[in-house]
Amino acid sequence: MVKDKNEWFESTKETGWKKDNKASTRRWHLIRSTDKRKTMYHRYVTAGKRIQALANVTTDADTSLLANRDADYFFEKARSVK
């Protein structure tokens, strides 16, 4: 994969998240990419942080909106588990 020299965001893990997928599919990919040895609280927080990082750096309005919604979903799930 050729990276643009202006691109500075590097994901720590490939999640499979795509803005064209349904919300349930996007969220399944995110939670699946987390460490299964951790508690569900930590998995939700990790997934939320990963997608929030994308939302913070993207210039695409649709991606930003969907990523923020997914991040809010995971942070809310983490609050309900704790």
Strand content range: under 5%
| Domain tally | 1
Largest sheet: none
Helix content: 55-70%
Overall mean confidence score, pLDDT: 89
Number of helices: 3
Question: From the helix content, strand content and strand pairing, which structural class follows?
Answer: mainly alpha
Radius of gyration: 13 Å
Please give the number of β-strands: 0
- Give the overall shape, derived from the CA principal axes: globular
The H/E string reads HHH
Low-confidence stretches: none
State the end-to-end CA separation.
Answer: 39 Å
Based on the model shown, name its key terms.
mainly alpha, 82 residues, 3 helices
Secondary-structure blueprint:
Blueprint: H1 23-32, H2 40-57, H3 61-81
Helix pairs in contact: 2-3
What does this entry look like structurally?
By secondary structure, the protein is mostly helical. The protein has one domain. It is built from three helices and no strands. It has helices at 23-32, 40-57, 61-81. It is globular.
Produce a short descriptive summary:
With 82 residues, the chain is mainly alpha-helical. The protein contains three helices and no strands. Helix 2 runs antiparallel to helix 3 (61-81).
